[in-house]
Amino acid sequence: MNNFLLLPIIIPFFFAMILMFGQKKIAYQRIMTIFGLVLSILCAAGLVLNVRENGPQIVTFGNWPAPFGITMVSDMMSALLVLTTLVLAMFIVWYGFASIGRKREQFFYYPGIMFIITGVNGAFTTGDIFNLFVFFEVLLMASYLLIVLGGEKAQLRESIKYILVNVISSALFVITVAYLYSVVGTLNMADISLKIAEINQPGILTVIAVLFLLVFGMKAAIFPLYFWLPSAYSAPPIPVLALFGALLTKVGVYAITRTYTLFFTHDLSYTHELLLILAILTIVAGCIGALAHFDVKQIIIYNIVIAVGVILFGVAQMNEAGLEGAIFYLIHDMIIKAALFMLIGIVIYVTGTTNLRKMGGLMKTYPALGWFYLIAAFGLVGVPPLSGFIGKLLIVQGGFEAGNTWSTLLVLASSIIVLLSAMRIFIYAFWGVEGQLSSNVEKSKFNGLFIPTAFLVVLSIFYGIGTEWLTPFMGDAAKILFDPSIYTDAVMKGGN
Amino acid sequence: MEIVMAFVCGFLFMAAIYLILSRSLLRIIIGTGLLSHGAHLLILTMGSFKGSAPPVLSEGVTDFVDPLPQALILTAIVISFGVTAFFLVLAYRAYHELKTDDMTLMKGSEDNE
Fold this sequence. Notes:
By secondary structure, chain A is mainly α. Chain A has helices at residues 7-19, 26-54, 76-99, 102-105, 109-125, 129-148, 153-184, 189-199, 203-220, 229-234, 238-262, 268-292, 296-317, 320-351, 362-365, 367-381, 388-401, 405-430, 443-465, 467-482, 484-492; strands spanning 57-60, 71-74.
């Protein structure tokens, strides 16, 4: 049963196709979407356990030997990311039932979500660089649909910019793959890694490494390339925003991590130093944005940028602590960003505004919402029993071990800014005199939004408390990143 | 031959970037078209122009061109075709709703609606 690792990609794809039929029957759409996601979650959980027991799972399509066919590789990192993606998608879809609206539901909202999941899971699992491009396009096409669905003026305006940026970065991806192909003559990621090790990374490959950083950095929103993110993410409705904030930039982060740990490991003093500097600048830029805004959406959106910087800082250390911390923090951040977007979605629903200055006193009317927001905010910052702590601790440890003292202190200092920005929402919206309240808040709709969000926040608490239990999985994932020969051996042997 | 093609690709990229930086939305879309042409030509060039026969098995021919870049280009062409079609329809819809095709007027704040 080696094809098992394909199930988390194929099941959402299959359900996306059958959801194309019966687009007006909302009950059918909802039930099939949840059913498909639960089925994929079970398969993904099975995959994680399988990878834990038997090492990386590999399948090469059509029984071709490894460098000639398209290889799909599920190591611990991609298996965990696939599982996280599916779990988050389920909660966001559940949250969307109450808020996305009939019109959108009847117009291919659920197929769009399933296609985006297909693309994301495929991008996490693939072992072929051009196939990665194709999966990127799958998820981008679906994201174009979701960002513009509804056709409000703001959505039309922002999706034009979003699509333009992504068309350019896709063209750049094709160009970079062309350069890489002309140097190493192969597209299989394990084979590329071996070929680069053979020729010991001459200057041209360092250039290609920087090009990859540009391409994936544009998807992941790193420092000079994050300009499109704040406006593009402010356009779509909250469930779509939660999906984008939790998944899309993280695919770029994953791709940077994969290429910089598997391919370009022979000229660390240049490539990883560059990554380190860009990560620091990303954190600084995100901090400035998070403090500058009084719009709740924008504050959380800039927190995405900060988190991307922190994860890439961990990757740039290239030691086991830094990489393990990066994986811990990556998965934590996916969960907590989805939870935060869902929480502020509720805040926006009950107040009817995104402007912090107009809010106030929600603690009296919605105490549960306030406490859950407070927990999520502390989780975001990394207060010890909660989910963000262990990842940042390991990243900081990795930073000190690698001797980057000053930049590591800066990462620590960024936590204070994150705390300040998250607490500012809490203070303005939940404390003080009562501000603006939306007049037509329905109890059932509020519960429909609040219950999935509460479950997700509880999940993030368990992620923090269960660190001991998660460590072996994360350790496996970090080991394969730290030592790419495990990956290449597993693939080039032709899979088990 | 590769040198000539490198210059052609460079020229296409130059024209594409010039058009993408302009104000009119339609010129931007034409720019993305040129950008994908340049990228596709670059894949072909980077696969090198060795070999003379098309990559189809036939009697007595050994001097094939590299088949892989052609497969990559074919994939990239249909993808960019799909994206361009979507982008054009989006531009048409945006022109109807926003009553402008000038990118400098598409400002992103609540007051402009």
